């Protein structure tokens, strides 16, 4: 019965929890496939010979096997509820596995009173009380699957970070990389392909180190798909070929077809059309094989239906006497349905008109907002340009005017010093000279500091890299810059705005995050620039941030919104901070 439910969790690795008994598990572990055999085995068991926990496992297997035969999902769900009612609240392990089966049953019964996430939250608490990290990580991965299915990617990332912390606490290296593999999936769903690729590379190193060819096979396939979405077709072909070399010998026909289709696409994108066409022909042959098997299955199904129809014909003959009454009832129902359809049509027509009016109002408001934002952005551009001009003027005056005057004064003073004959006068000359030198040096430094900026450098990327290098030299924070696609310079005012935003966010990390590492990712797409700044610091409670907290995040968010972009903070206390900015180009 778990086939449909497992579709939601394709990205989650299989989790096998060790059982405390072997014989019962050996008998009923495969009840998904051998339903009648499972029921026959259960009939031979004396439940008194087993512990309470083992008895519950046997009853769960019995109910699931019965569902596999009669497909009566509500009956199966109700049987599980009865087991849960009879379970001792202190028997946490039995309760966990009953809830686990209820989670799967949720997908088959629409009238389930307790929701999917409610059951998972209960199991999280049980696993924590049992101090069982395997059960706890499993629960977090289930909730992650549900959140991704509903496109709630930020919440899914929070669940994964919590699972990762548990795995780190108990030194479960394999689980850590399982979680990071799921993080890569989340980043792919969000379109953050560079971040997804970083995790895929880490996972590739891990599987290579432990020589896990099955893990490497899946990793190479996933990495190839990321490169395909990035339109790096050479890498797409390279990783698809690597995956083909490690493909297991026992692949089923559907997975074999998918592998060949991937390789055919990779050859096609790399202009190797002959190899591509040969593989596509092979794929079509395999599909024909599947269709032939399905046709044979349909023929058997039709024969079974024919035998059933003969039986139903005899039953129908006995029910002929009631047909007249049934026709009257059907006529009444048809009339009622017709009236309902007319009423529904009228209601939908009125609702569509109302929605159209509301849509027009929203369009007018959006146009007004766009005009206001454009005006505000123009004001900000003018303000930034004015500030840069003022800085240049101040720097020029400091360097050309005051700097020149101080230099002249210094020359005259040195002449006076050489002419001074008395030792006492020389001491005063030395002190005064030192003050002049200090003043001159401060003015020179101010001049250079005011004059340097994004516009005075060779572009955005060199300026950001220079800033990162200066911060890293302090040995307190290591800043790494990763950029992709920024081959040309942007508009001067936009480069300046982006540089100031990055500079302010790095200042926040230094002042508040207590981080040792920070990453700046800049990725240029066709229509927007993605900026992602991550740190491994103490994190923060995003909900409690106020505009007056002093970190300038509210001001940065407003600047980004004025460009038509988006600003998102992803952070939890103890899990670092990730800030994602998208600015249209």
From TrEMBL:
The keyword Coiled coil applies. Its cofactor is [4Fe-4S] cluster. Residues 1-18 form the signal peptide. TPR repeats lie at residues 217-250. Its main location: cytoplasm. The keyword Lipid metabolism does not apply. It is found in: Cytoplasm. Its EC number is 2.7.13.3. One of its GO terms (cellular component) is cytoplasm. SUPFAM superfamilies: ATPase domain of HSP90 chaperone/DNA topoisomerase II/histidine kinase, TPR-like. Member of the two-component regulatory system NreB/NreC involved in the control of dissimilatory nitrate/nitrite reduction in response to oxygen. NreB functions as a direct oxygen sensor histidine kinase which is autophosphorylated, in the absence of oxygen, probably at the conserved histidine residue, and transfers its phosphate group probably to a conserved aspartate residue of NreC. NreB/NreC activates the expression of the nitrate (narGHJI) and nitrite (nir) reductase operons, as well as the putative nitrate transporter gene narT. This is Oxygen sensor histidine kinase NreB. It comes from Nonlabens tegetincola. The lineage of its organism: Bacteria, Pseudomonadati, Bacteroidota, Flavobacteriia, Flavobacteriales.
């Amino acid at each position: 019965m778990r086939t449909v439910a497992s579709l939601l969790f394709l990205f989650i690795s299989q989790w096998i929890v060790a059982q405390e008994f072997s014989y019962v598990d050996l008998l009923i572990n495969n009840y998904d496939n051998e339903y009648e055999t499972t029921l026959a085995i259960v009939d031979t068991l004396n439940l008194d010979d087993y512990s309470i926990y083992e008895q519950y496992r046997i009853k769960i297997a019995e109910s699931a096997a019965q569902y596999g035969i009669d497909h009566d999902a509500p009956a199966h769900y109700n049987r599980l509820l009865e087991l849960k009612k009879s379970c001792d609240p202190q028997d946490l392990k039995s309760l966990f596995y009953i809830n686990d089966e209820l989670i799967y049953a949720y997908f088959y019964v629409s009238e389930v009173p307790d929701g999917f996430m409610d059951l998972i939250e209960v199991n999280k608490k049980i696993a924590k009380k049992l101090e069982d990290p395997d059960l706890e990580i499993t629960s977090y991965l289930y909730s992650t699957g549900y959140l991704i299915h509903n496109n709630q990617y930020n919440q899914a990332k929070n669940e994964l970070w919590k699972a990762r912390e548990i795995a780190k606490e108990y030194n479960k290296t394999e689980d850590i990389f399982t979680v990071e593999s799921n993080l890569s999936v989340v980043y792919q769903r969000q379109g953050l392909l560079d971040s997804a690729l970083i995790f895929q590379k880490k996972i590739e190193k891990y599987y290579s180190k432990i020589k896990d060819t099955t893990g490497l096979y899946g990793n190479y396939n996933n990495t190839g798909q990321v490169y395909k979405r990035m339109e790096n077709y050479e890498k797409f072909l390279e990783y698809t070929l690597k995956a083909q070399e490690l493909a297991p010998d026992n692949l089923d026909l559907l997975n074999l077809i998918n592998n060949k289709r991937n390789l055919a696409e990779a050859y096609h994108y790399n202009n190797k059309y002959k190899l591509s066409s040969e593989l596509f022909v092979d794929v079509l042959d395999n599909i024909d094989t599947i269709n032939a098997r399905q046709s044979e299955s349909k023929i058997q199904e039709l024969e079974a239906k024919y035998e059933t129809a003969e039986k139903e014909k005899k039953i129908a003959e006995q029910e002929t006497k009631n047909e007249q009454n049934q026709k009257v009832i059907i006529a009444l129902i048809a009339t009622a349905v017709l009236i309902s359809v007319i009423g529904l049509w009228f209601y939908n027509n009125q609702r569509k008109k109302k929605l159209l009016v509301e849509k027009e109002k929203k369009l007018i408001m959006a146009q007004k907002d766009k005009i206001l934002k454009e005006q505000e952005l123009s004001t900000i551009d003018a303000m930034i340009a004015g500030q840069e001009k003022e800085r240049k003027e101040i720097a020029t005056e400091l360097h050309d005017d005051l700097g020149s005057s101080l230099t002249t004064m210094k020359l005259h003073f040195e002449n006076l010093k050489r002419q001074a004959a008395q030792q006492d006068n020389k001491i005063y000359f030395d002190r005064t000279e030192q003050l002049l030198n200090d003043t001159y040096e401060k003015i020179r430094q101010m001049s250079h500091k005011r004059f340097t900026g994004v516009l005075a450098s060779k572009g955005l990327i060199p300026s950001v890299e220079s800033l990162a290098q200066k911060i890293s030299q302090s040995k307190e924070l290591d800043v790494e810059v990763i950029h992709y696609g920024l081959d040309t310079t942007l508009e001067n005012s936009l480069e300046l705005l982006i540089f100031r935003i990055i500079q302010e966010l790095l200042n926040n990390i230094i002042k508040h995050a207590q981080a040792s590492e920070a990453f700046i990712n800049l990725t240029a797409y066709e229509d927007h620039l993605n900026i992602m700044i991550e740190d491994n610091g103490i994190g923060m409670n995003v909900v409690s941030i106020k505009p007056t907290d002093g970190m300038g995040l509210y001001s940065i968010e407003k600047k980004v919104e004025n460009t038509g972009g988006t600003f998102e903070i992803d952070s939890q206390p103890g899990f670092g901070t990730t800030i994602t900015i998208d600015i249209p180009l």
